[in-house]
Amino acid sequence: MCGIVGGVAERCVTEILIEGLKRLEYRGYDSAGLALLNKEQILRERRVGKVANLAEAVSEQHLTGNIGIAHTRWATHGKPTENNAHPHVSGNVAVVHNGIIENYQELKDELQALGYIFTSQTDTEVVAHLVNDALKQTDSLLEAVQKVTPRLKGAYALGIIHTEHADELITVREGSPLVIGVGIGENFISSDQLALLPVTNRFVYLEEGDIARLTRTSIEVFVNGERVDRPVKELDATVSNASKGEYKHFMLKEIYEQPEAIQQTISQALNGNNLREDFLQHANADFNKIQQVQIIACGTSYHAGMIAKYWFEQLIGVPCQVEIASEFRYRTPVIVENTLYICISQSGETADTLAALRETQKRAKANNINISTMTICNVATSSMVRETDHHLLTLAGPEIGVASTKAFTTQLAALMLLIIKIGQVKQRLAAAQLTEITEALWHCPKVILDTLQHNTAILRLSALFVEKNHCLFLGRGTHFPIALEGALKLKEISYIHAEGYAAGELKHGPLALVDNEMPVVILAPNDEMLDKLKSNMEEVQARGGELFVFADENSGIQEKDRQHVVHIPAVNEWLAPIVYSVPVQLLSYHVAVLRGTDVDQPRNLAKSVTVE
Ligand code: G6P
C-alpha cells in the first residue's frame, strides 16, 4: 500500500526521505516520488518502479531541501505512471496522500469549473487544488487544510507543504495511519514508524481526525480547530530489526525467526506450566461473561482464525465463528449479546478489519448490546489495539516480507494462550490439559527448529514445482486452514495457481483436476484423521497425481514412486498446525526463488492493506 514520509529539519532531508521510502518498500508500491522546498521553489521528482530509480534521479540532480514530503504509490485511481505518482502539485502546494478520496469526481468537476487543470488521473490531485484554492481566503496553510478536510469523504493521511511556508509541514490523519517522529530540532511524519527508525525512536501517534502542524522545533495537533495534547511515546524496536542480516530475503529471515518469536510470545503469558496471574487479568470479568466468539480477519490472519475455531470449540466448548472482514462489514450481521469479537491482524491497520470492528461497536452501542472486543496484533500502537477493549500482542518483531510467516505462527500461539485463559476463567480446562498444552507450547520452538533442518530436502522438492501451473494443498481438521495458507503462500509469491482444500472435499470437485501434471501437497500430522487422509492420498495417486507429503515421522507414510515425503518431528496434536506451517512456507519460498519472482514484494500485493 502507499507510504508517506516527510520531514522538516535544519539539515537536508533528501537522504532521510529516500531511506524512509526504502523502508516502506515492503508494503508494496509501483511508483515513488518526492518534493522538497528549496529557495521558495518546489523541487519534485517522480519515477515509475522502484525507489532506487527515484534515488538515482534525485542524486543526479543534487536535489536538496530542509523540508520535504515523499511517497510510494500503489495504484488505485489511474495507472502506475509518472504523472499519477505523488507528490501532486497545485500552484505553490505539494501533497502526498494515502487512502482514497471517495467523492473526488464531484470535487474534480467543481475544481475544473473553477479553471484548475488536472495533470493526473488520481483522486489525490483534488486535495492539492482544494488547498491551493482555500489559500485565496487565508494566509495560513493550517487554516486552509482545516477548511478542506471536511469536504473530503473517504480515508486519508496527508502530508502538505507550501513554498511560502518554508518552515512548516501540515499533516492529517483520517482513516489511514500516520505517525509523527519527534527528533531534536527536527520532526518527521510517516505512515509507518519503521520508516523513521533511523532518525528517531520517539513518536506521536495521531488519532482519527487529527491535523498537525510541524516545524523544526514544534508539533501542534488540532481537532476541529482546537489544540489537543498527544503524548510522545518511546519505541524500543531497534533499527537492526528491519534489516535482512545474513539472509537473502526478509521472508527467509522471518521464517527462521519463528522459534524465537513464538518463545517471546508465550513467555509474556506463561510462568512454567501456568498462566501468569497478570496475563489479561483486566479481561477476567468479560471473559467470564462471554458465551461465544466471533473472529474477524483478512488473508493469512483469517486462516489463523479458522484454526482457532477448532480449538475454541474442541478444547473449551466455546462456540466460535470466523469471517472474512470484507464480508462481515457489509452483511449486517446480527450482533449477539455476550459475544467476544476478536480482530486478528498483523498490522492492526487493515481497512476491512478495522471497519468491521467499528461497525460492530457502533451497532452494539446503538442497540445497547453488551459485547467485548479484542485484538490479536503485532503492532502495539496500531488502531485496532487502541480501539478494542482488550489486546494480546504477538511479539514477532517487525514483519517485512509481504507474505506473512512469523506473524501467522505467533498469532496461533497467542490464540492458544487466549483459549487457555478463557478456559481457565470459565473453568472449562482440566488441569491435565493445561499442563499438556503449556508443555507443548514451550516445546514448540524446538520442534520448529528441528523442522527447519529439512530446509534442503524441501528445496530439492521445490525444483519439481517450478514448471507447474497449478497445485493442490490438502489437509483435514486444523490442517485444512494450513492447506489454505500453503496455497495462499504459493500463489502470493511464486504466482503458481494453487488451491487449498479440506481433503474430505476432494471427491466433490478438485479430484477432477488431478492428473500427472498436478502436484498435490498433503499435510499429514499424526492425528485421528490420518487413516482418512491416507485414503485421500490413494485417490490422488490412482489418478496419476504426484504427492508431496509433509508427514509425521510416526505416520508410517514412506517415499515411493510419485510420492515424496518430508518427515516432520512428532508434535503435540493441538500445536501441530503451528509446526506444519513451516514446511509450506519454505516450499513456497524456494519455488518463488527458483522462479525468480520478487519474494519480499510480490507483484500487485501490499503488506498492509489500508484502503478498501
Ligand atoms: C495483506 C497481506 C497479508 C495479510 C493480510 C491481512 O493481504 O499481504 O500477508 O495476511 O493483508 O493483514 P493483517 O495486517 O490484518 O494481518
UniProtKB/TrEMBL annotation:
One of its GO terms (cellular component) is cytosol. Its main location: cytoplasm. InterPro entries: GATase_2_dom, GFAT, GFAT_N, GlmS/AgaS_SIS, GlmS/FrlB_SIS, Ntn_hydrolases_N, SIS_dom, SIS_dom_sf. GO terms for molecular function: carbohydrate derivative binding; glutamine-fructose-6-phosphate transaminase (isomerizing) activity. One of its GO terms (biological process) is protein N-linked glycosylation. Keywords: Aminotransferase, Cytoplasm, Glutamine amidotransferase, Repeat, Transferase. The keyword Transmembrane does not apply. It catalyses: D-fructose 6-phosphate + L-glutamine = D-glucosamine 6-phosphate + L-glutamate. It is an enzyme of class 2 (transferase). It comes from the Bacteria. CDD domains: GFAT, SIS_GlmS_GlmD_1, SIS_GlmS_GlmD_2. The active site is at residues 2, 607. Its EC number is 2.6.1.16. Residues 2-217 form the Glutamine amidotransferase type-2 domain. Catalyzes the first step in hexosamine metabolism, converting fructose-6P into glucosamine-6P using glutamine as a nitrogen source. Homodimer. PANTHER family: GLUCOSAMINE--FRUCTOSE-6-PHOSPHATE AMINOTRANSFERASE, ISOMERIZING, GLUTAMINE--FRUCTOSE-6-PHOSPHATE TRANSAMINASE (ISOMERIZING). This is Glutamine--fructose-6-phosphate aminotransferase [isomerizing]. The lineage of its organism: Bacteria, Pseudomonadati, Pseudomonadota, Gammaproteobacteria, Moraxellales.
